[in-house]
């Protein structure tokens, strides 16, 4: 496990000293990401969990939600669809997971 001065910790695969493949990155605030890494960046498919209960599962590129994914908020709102550079963009569906 690798730790940084800011409290972040990484546990997973490395190639040539860089995060590459599957791993888990945990931040000092309690948020964490589990999934794929490429050249030290969050890239590919993975899940991100925030301390406030929000979570995202889907595609990533250059440490940002990018591609198809699902974002669920603590209050059970849910967006499923396209993301571009961490923003909902393009085609998607917004709903509530509590049956509304």
Side-by-side strand order of the widest sheet? 1-2-3-4-5-6-7-8-9
Discrete helix count: 0
CA radius of gyration is: 14 Å
Number of domains: 1
CATH homologous superfamily grouping: Histone H3 K4-specific methyltransferase SET7/9 N-terminal domain
Number of distinct beta strands: 9
The fraction of residues in strands falls at: over 45%
What structural class results from the helix and strand content?
A: mainly beta
Q: Kindly, what is the distance between the CA atoms of the first and last residues, rounded to a whole number of angstroms?
A: 42 Å
Q: Name the average pLDDT.
A: 93
Task: Describe this structure as you would to a colleague.
0% of the residues lie in helices and 68% in strands. The protein is mostly beta strands and 100 residues long. It has a single domain, classed as Histone H3 K4-specific methyltransferase SET7/9 N-terminal domain, CATH 2.20.110. The protein has a nine-stranded antiparallel sheet, with no helix packed on it. The radius of gyration is 14 Å and the shape is globular.
Quick take:
With 100 residues, this protein is an all-beta fold.
């Amino acid at each position: 496990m690798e730790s940084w001065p800011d409290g972040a910790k990484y546990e997973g695969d490395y190639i040539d000293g860089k995060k590459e493949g599957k791993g888990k990155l945990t931040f000092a605030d309690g948020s964490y990401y589990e999934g794929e890494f490429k050249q030290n960046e969050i890239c590919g498919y993975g899940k991100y969990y925030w301390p406030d209960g929000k979570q995202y599962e889907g595609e990533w590129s250059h440490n940002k939600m990018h591609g198809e994914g699902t974002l669920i908020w603590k209050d059970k709102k849910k967006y499923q669809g396209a993301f571009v550079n961490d923003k909902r963009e393009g085609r998607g569906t917004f709903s509530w997971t509590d049956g509304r």
